[in-house]
Amino acid sequence: MLLFQTVLNAAYGQLSLKGVVTDPDGKPLPGASVVLKNSYHGVSAGTDGTFKLHPLKPGEYSLAVSFIGYETWEKVIFLQADTDIRVELTASVLLTEEILVMATRAHEKIPVAYSNLSSELLRERNLGQDLPYLLSTSPSFVATSDAGNGIGYTSFRIRGTDMNRINVTVNGIPLNDAESHTTFFVDQPDLASSGDNIQIQRGVGTSANGGAAFGATINMQTLSLNPEPYGSVHSSAGSFHSFKNTVAAGTGLINNKFSLDMRLSKISSDGFIDRAFSNLKSYFLSGGYYSGKTVVKANIWSGWEETYQAWNGVPSVRLRNDLAGMKRYEEHGLYSAKETAEMIASNHRTYNLYTYDNQVDHYQQDHYHFHLSHRFNSRLHFNLATYYTYGRGYYEQFKYSQKFGSYGLQKPVINGIEISRTDLVRRKWLDNDFYGTVFSVLWKGTKTDFTCGGGWNRYSGRHFGRLVWTEYAVKILPDYEWYRNKGEKTDLNGYAKINYSLSPVINLFADLQYRTISYEIAGKDDDLRLLDQQHDYHFFNPKAGIFYQPDASNSLYLSIARSNREPNRDNFTDTPPGGMLPEHESLNDWETGWNYRSVSFTISANLFAMLYHNQLALTGQINDVGAAIMTNVEKSYRTGLEVQWGVRLLPPLHWDGNMTFSRNRIAGFTEYVDDWDSGEQRSDDLGTTHLSFSPGLIANSRISWSPGRLSLKLISSYTGKQYIDNSSSDERKLDAWLVNSLIVDYRLKIKSLKTVSLQLMVNNLFDAEYESNAWVYSYYYGGKRYKMDGYFPQAGRNFMAGVTIDL
């Protein structure tokens, strides 16, 4: 490291810029952010308010100093020799929204691996794709799209961890569904257009509200105060008849106290996959009251989506044009003769099993968030928020040759013949309420930062199924329900965090969280089984670490954190009667890292070891109706190295990137495969195997060239080979892929308008063929192993072009 730093010092200079940050009374402001704008360099002021930026070349620098509750101070510094300055910050006339997320955010001296994404980074790709695709170049991040073009149902993994193990909050309020634990971004389309910034914490991270962080935490802050009136119109269009239209406006600050912001969005696309259309609408309203010590804010938003189902994927035999394999689907009873013929006649990359006109997912979700923040003095802050979310909707399915008895119906007799099966159309409904409150108290001392907080929430979900149509006339009531059940969940957590400055270069961090969950399921499932059950959990999640910063350029950290996670709804409902219920999962997460920052160069390296106990994984076991069961595996782990870098090659030319090398394994894995010959399951002890959907290498590169009004960005993403089950078989894997995209932005100057931006995004520039997700079901028949699967091909070269007008 010493040699590396010596080389960098020689390349980037030896001068230093020192200073002290104080309030108007001359009292130091420890922790104040000191940043050289348009560079990678920045530090936090020490316990005595002092800072030092080093090494610097002679030249002109724009220095920005900020501290919560104070106006940002900016000044151009002409540096020719070592310089010492004094920065006096003035108390803000208004308290601003950054206080809303402080309790759940990591900052510079917290020993956590994290990335911050600004609104500018979010908006450069925001031409219609869902939020996971806007985050897709973050470290260890892999995004996927059912429709193949990033619009509609999208999901992602971080470090191989899926979305139901990733905690997501908006302004500190939980967004994860309480039962499935996942976040459906399709239910809140274009939320990024109302976002100010996002922080992604990898690993367990710091304590947050809502679901357990078992792989990462994503915290979004929505629009902050814009003191001036504004208006904005965005329209974009592109491949697959994709369109996005967004209108946003704000009043600015009225009477130095009030503001109102709004956004309306509509996004539509036919999708890359056959019939995989999306029709998405949303609005966002925000009203705020601001004073020097208090913020009162209400955020109300709603999303409505209707998407054609593309959940089944493309069978590998269709991708490979394997005619014999496709015919096997009919021969083995996997598909009907009609479905097999349609598969054979389809395009090998855009095939969709579903052909029924109204095979749609239809859902609406409304959010009501109310915030109160108060600053008692420069050291003590308080936040309180209440929220309510109402969701309702269904997905409609055409089902072939269903048994009447499976729906609680008597078999009809037609012309003296008893009919046992029928084609039908059904809807599976979810109608739910989610409400609660979160709070935090933040105290900032000279050497000690202390935060305590917590939250309580209540979820009530009503699951029911209705028949819309049957092939044969039967005596059923309108909206006949064949099942109905209810999930009730209460979640309570409290946490305390302390960051103590042991010396000018060493900070100690501790974070203790207690969480208790009560979950009850009652009623009848769609297979007519009774689900009545009650589960209670009590989790203690401690975290601790040390942060060492020997100088302004270098910092090192070490942390250990523990997280516990309760099983989700499916883990319980898929367990057969009398079967062994799933246990909760536990994770011990070790993280250690090093960061180096200078004006023109930054690099960081983070080593992680995530050690699981009783992680829930697919083993091939099924329940009594053939549904796959997630089973606890005693020992598994993820270890790896994450590297991030940024280089300013020339003032207008930047190169930013990241790479993740990882090893992801299950120790002592037993695989279960259905044996159709015997009606039982075969088991096979495979020893140590790869964890599914966990590539050993993920890499992203972003080259930006911005000469004046023109901006060009070349984005490259590589994802290594992944297995789609836990058997480590090359017969069941996703091949590695490399995708490049180009973003062009040109800003016009037009009188009477603030800016007019013309944007072009070319995705998959070199037309690579790849699949980003898959599922598989294996079975033995006639003594031979076969599989039924679905892969999700992503679109080839495609584009979106748009214009944004800021009034």
Please characterize this protein's 3D structure.
This protein is mainly β and 807 residues long. It has three domains: 2-92, Immunoglobulin-like, CATH 2.60.40; 99-222, TonB-dependent receptor, plug domain (Ferric Hydroxamate Uptake Protein, Chain A, domain 1, Beta Complex); 230-314 and 349-806, Beta Barrel (Maltoporin, Chain A), CATH 2.40.170. It contains seven helices and 43 strands. The strands form seven sheets. The chain has a 22-stranded antiparallel barrel. It has a five-stranded mixed sheet with strand order 8-13-14-11-12. Strands 3-2-5-6 form a four-stranded antiparallel sheet, with no helix packed on it.
Mean pLDDT across every amino acid position: 93
Major β-sheet annotation: 22 strands, antiparallel, barrel
The CATH topology of the largest domain turns out to be Maltoporin, Chain A
Query: Which radius of gyration do the C-alpha atoms yield?
Result: 28 Å
The share of residues in extended strands comes to over 45%
CATH class label of the largest domain: Mainly Beta
Number of strands: 43
* Content-based structural category: mainly beta
